[in-house]
From TrEMBL:
Biological function: This protein specifically catalyzes the removal of signal peptides from prolipoproteins.
Originating organism: Bombella pluederhausensis
Protein name: Lipoprotein signal peptidase
Compartments reported by the entry: Cell membrane
Keyword Protease annotated: yes
Main subcellular localisation: membrane
Similarity field: Belongs to the peptidase A8 family.
Membrane-spanning ranges: 20-37, 57-78, 84-101, 108-125, 145-165
Entry GO MF terms: aspartic-type endopeptidase activity
UniProt-listed NCBIfam families: lspA, PRK14770.1
UniProt pathway: Protein modification; lipoprotein biosynthesis (signal peptide cleavage)
Length: 177
């Protein structure tokens, strides 16, 4: 017989019940950490470093902080048309990712969802606050230059990469069974 109020609690800590494994909590924590670091970094470059006025600040060979107000989507696609459409699509994707996270049975998928969710929400906050996404990380070598991006973009790309890696590992394991 269960005692009232003790379901899923071990030693007064977080629930470790099979219905909500710890790695899902890690996914949620990842989303919150990504969101926090993304927003703090943007506040820092905008208001402490004053990057909009300075435009570019060399950090080290191959890396500058360069101010770009991105009115478009990833890699400048769609030229910034439909700000509200981008916000709605991003928020729908976040809802879908939260469902995927809640159903996730694998650690890498949970981490991937967390990174993508945190990054997507960070960029939505920018669109709501500024009408554009704050991009400032500029990687370059000689005449070659990558797109200017931010922490949120990095988390989204890393999250997609983790999810792909997980898919490859699952496929590989299924061949060996």
């Amino acid at each position: 017989m269960k005692q009232a109020g003790t379901e899923g609690v071990k030693g007064g800590g977080a629930s470790a019940s099979p219905s909500f494994p710890r790695w899902r909590l890690v996914g949620l924590a990842t989303a919150l950490i990504v969101l926090f670091v993304d927003q703090v970094s943007k506040e820092w470059v905008l208001y402490w470093l004053d990057l909009p006025l300075r435009r570019t600040v060399p950090i080290m060979p191959g890396l500058n902080f360069t101010m770009v107000w991105n009115h478009a989507v990833t890699f400048g696609m769609f030229g910034g048309h439909g700000r509200w459409l981008f916000i709605v699509i991003s928020l729908l994707a976040v809802v879908g990712l939260l469902v995927a996270l809640a159903r996730s049975r694998r650690r890498l998928v949970s981490l991937a969802c967390g990174g993508i969710i945190g990054g997507a929400v960070g960029n939505v906050i920018d669109r709501l606050r500024y009408g554009a996404v704050v991009d400032f990380l500029h990687v370059h070598v000689g005449d070659w230059s990558w797109y200017v991006f931010n922490i949120a973009d990095s988390a989204i790309v890393c999250g997609v990469g983790l999810w792909l890696l997980d898919s490859l590992l699952v496929e590989r394991r299924s061949r060996h069974v």
